[in-house]
Write the structure tokens for this entry.
Amino acid sequence: MKKLEIIVRGQFQKEVEGLLDRVKVSGYTIIPNISGKGHHGLHEGHLMFNDIHSMVMIITVVPKEKVDTVLAGVVPMLEHHSGVVFVSDVTVVRRDYFRIEDES
């Protein structure tokens, strides 16, 4: 299994959620208002009036077969906007929660 940590501006959160739903991931976790520093400088969370300009992290665990499909949908937006995707190997304790749709 692979863990994807997708960090994008809040304005792209719904777009990433839609992508994950279309790819039929079993679920994801969203962490809003994250802070950090990268190529585009410092990003601060907890913007009072504008969540779309703050950064969010969307974490999901997928079978390795779905990684390229998710990346194909996310990478183009990262070419023009702040964000990053981390892909790592992960062991899942409750693997039945993450089964591939075709496995029954």
